[in-house]
């Protein structure tokens, strides 16, 4: 099976007035089709930077990175991925439906295609009937679901998500975690997901990539033993607790390497 994302010896150094900042160092990772891969680590460890490299929003300074067998730049032009940011980033003067239509308008889809896709993705994120609302009329959790719908609208194979639920309270976050797993099961997308939360990473992922403080390195890649069907109650299981413990150990080990 060919990898959807392949990073080999990836490095990224930012030049600043205080000298070079080594954001990523010798990152090697393969993400397969249909994987749900979470990136976890302390602030400044390079997890968001790595996601931004996949999306061609940052340029690596060494090593190689391919997305769907192309350079990240080619993958961006081929619309290989949708990107969900930490803030929903919805335009307040556009309805939810028109926010979702925005990338479709830019890509030149016909009005009929736009309407059809908006209807489908609103249904996928359980927001059917809310297309005519404005962002300020929706809760924070609903706004994030609308943001996910916008990223899904042009049906890219890969969904990149940068701490999309980080600002939400725990009850809403749990609910959205459940909905995201259901969405992943229905669509078969490949998902790259950045989080600071160990329970969230363990609950959602088929693989968890643990990263060290700067310079960002991968200290562990954990294959989840959990079944793909995961009720929230699985978080009390022995298998879940063991994986969470290994993530915690990986984070600790990364700190002790400094």
UniProtKB/TrEMBL annotation:
Domain called ABC transporter: residue spans: 7-238
Keywords: ATP-binding, Nucleotide-binding, Transport
Keyword Transport appears in the UniProt entry: yes
A GO molecular function held by the record: ATP binding
Pfam families (alphabetical): ABC_tran
SMART domains: AAA
Coiled coil: none
PANTHER family: ALIPHATIC SULFONATES IMPORT ATP-BINDING PROTEIN SSUB, TAURINE IMPORT ATP-BINDING PROTEIN-RELATED
Family recorded in the similarity comment: Belongs to the ABC transporter superfamily.
Protein name: NitT/TauT family transport system ATP-binding protein
Gene source species: Ruegeria marina
């Amino acid at each position: 099976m060919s990898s959807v994302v392949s990073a080999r010896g990836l490095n990224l150094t930012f030049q600043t007035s205080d000298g070079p900042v080594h954001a990523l160092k010798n990152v090697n990772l393969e993400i397969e089709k249909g994987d749900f891969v979470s990136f976890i680590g302390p602030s400044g460890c390079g997890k968001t930077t790595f996601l931004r490299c996949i999306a061609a929003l940052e340029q690596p300074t060494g090593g190689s990175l391919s997305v769907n067998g192309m350079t990240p730049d080619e993958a961006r032009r081929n619309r290989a991925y949708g990107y969900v940011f930490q803030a929903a980033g919805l335009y307040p003067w556009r309805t939810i439906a028109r926010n979702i239509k925005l990338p479709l308008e830019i890509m030149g889809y016909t009005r009929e295609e736009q309407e059809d896709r908006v209807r489908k993705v609103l249904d996928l994120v359980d927001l059917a009937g809310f297309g005519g609302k404005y962002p300020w009329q929706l809760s924070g959790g609903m706004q994030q679901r609308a943001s996910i719908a916008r990223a899904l609208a042009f049906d890219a194979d890969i969904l990149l998500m940068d701490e999309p639920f980080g600002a939400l309270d725990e009850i809403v976050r749990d609910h959205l975690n459940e909905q995201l797993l259901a969405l992943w099961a229905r669509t078969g997308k490949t998902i790259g997901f950045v989080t600071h939360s160990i329970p969230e990473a363990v609950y959602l992922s088929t693989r968890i990539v643990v990263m060290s403080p700067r310079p960002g390195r991968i200290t562990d890649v954990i294959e989840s033993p959990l079944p793909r069907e995961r009720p929230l109650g699985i978080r009390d299981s022995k298998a879940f607790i063991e994986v969470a413990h290994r993530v915690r150990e990986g984070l600790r080990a990364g700190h002790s390497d400094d």
